[in-house]
Amino acid sequence: MTNSFANMQSPSKSLSNRHKPIIGVLGCSGFIGYAMLKTAKELSIPARGLTRQSRSMWRNDQLTSLMEEGDANNHGILDDLFSSVDTVIDCASSLKPSSTDDSDYLIEAIRLDQRIRIAARKGIFKYIYISSGGALYTDAMSTSSEKTEPRPTSKYGLGKQMCEDVIAFHSRKGDLEVISARTSNPYGEYHTSPRHGFINVFIRNMLHHRHTTIYGDPDIIQKDYIYIRDTTRAIIDLTVYDTVGHCAVNVGSGSTHSLTEIIESSSTQLGSEALIQIVPSKSHDNLKFALDISLLQSLTGFLPKYTLTEGICATIKWERAKAGAI
């Protein structure tokens, strides 16, 4: 494999407010990572992506020249990448919401620590780790802010909390600026998981005339959903604005919607009746989840551009194209 990163000119390691950074995106074979690189390109922000596997989308989106194949835990590859960027967005998590292996979250935290240590040694200005507000905050009626105590109820959430402990440690050391971006429930184009991400999975099932299983009362399940283009734009904003002193920032839409709303909106736009199977909720399910995004807004002025209806409409369009449906 050729190290195209090594051939790029090393940038200045100082950023001012609203300066366009040179971004390195880890984990571009995943949903958020790929969308992050695409958004950076659309915003004309210089970026490089690292991925473990190539995807056919690269040719369609003309992102091939921005990507390098390689493992985000390979120290030599990271040395090359971190020499050519000044900011890192880390989407390279191997944790899955259904993860049950005790070693997964331990290994994840160790690997994140190693990546950040390399970033600090290479003079990276800012390092943003993609965390999960939905996995960290407790099931509650109130809206969760960054001051809300994380109380994960799943091993996936525990893994994210351990990674955030790594972030907090490096934030105290002050070697570089590190942030955990606690996302809500992103959905939209480039989502490929067959199990996780209700909106995409539900729309996909509708297009293929399949049932969707819901764990709990769809009227009661209310969560913060954010369209992927809003998610990536908010996180890229965090690379541009001054965030010193904050090691966790919520990234969400600032509003909640029930599964019933999502089902009705999707069914209306698709012009067909939903096939739903309702079963009891699982013990670790977070049925009500809302993010306070006032810190994100104060730091960057962020406001979502997509309403739920607009986001679902765009998601249907992408899922149809992906499925070859007209």
Quick synopsis:
By secondary structure, the protein is α/β, with parallel strands linked by helices. 39% of the residues lie in helices and 17% in strands.
Write up this protein.
The chain is built from 11 helices and 14 strands. The protein has 326 residues and is of the alpha/beta class. It has a 7-stranded parallel beta sheet with strand order 3-2-1-4-5-6-11, with helices on both faces. Strands 12-9-14 form a 3-stranded mixed beta sheet. Helix 1 links the parallel strand 1 and strand 2. The protein is globular and about 55 Å long. The N terminus is likely disordered.
Main attributes?
single chain, 326 residues, alpha/beta, seven-stranded parallel sheet, three-stranded mixed sheet, 14 strands, globular, disordered N terminus
- The radius of gyration is 19 Å
The amount of beta strand, in percent, is: 15-25%
Which spans have pLDDT < 50 for at least 5 consecutive residues?
A: 1-18
Note the run of SSEs as H and E: EHEHEHEHEHHEEHEEEHEEHEEHH
N- to C-terminal separation?
Answer: 39 Å
Q: What's the β-strand tally?
A: 14
Shape, principal axes of CA atoms: globular
> What characterizes the major β-sheet?
7 strands, parallel
Percent helix range: 25-40%
Q: What class would the helix/strand composition place it in?
A: alpha/beta
The side-by-side strand order for the widest beta sheet comes to 3-2-1-4-5-6-11
Number of helices: 11
Mean pLDDT: 86
Give the helices and strands, then pairings.
Elements: E1 23-26, H1 31-42, E2 47-51, H2 57-61, E3 67-69, H3 75-82, E4 87-90, H4 102-121, E5 126-132, H5 133-136, H6 155-173, E6 177-183, E7 185-187, H7 198-207, E8 212-215, E9 222-223, E10 225-227, H8 228-240, E11 248-251, E12 257-258, H9 259-270, E13 276-279, E14 288-289, H10 294-300, H11 308-323
Parallel strand pairs: 1-2, 1-4, 2-3, 4-5, 5-6, 6-11, 7-10, 8-13, 9-14
Antiparallel strand pairs: 9-12
Helix pairs in contact: 1-8, 4-6, 7-9, 7-11, 9-11
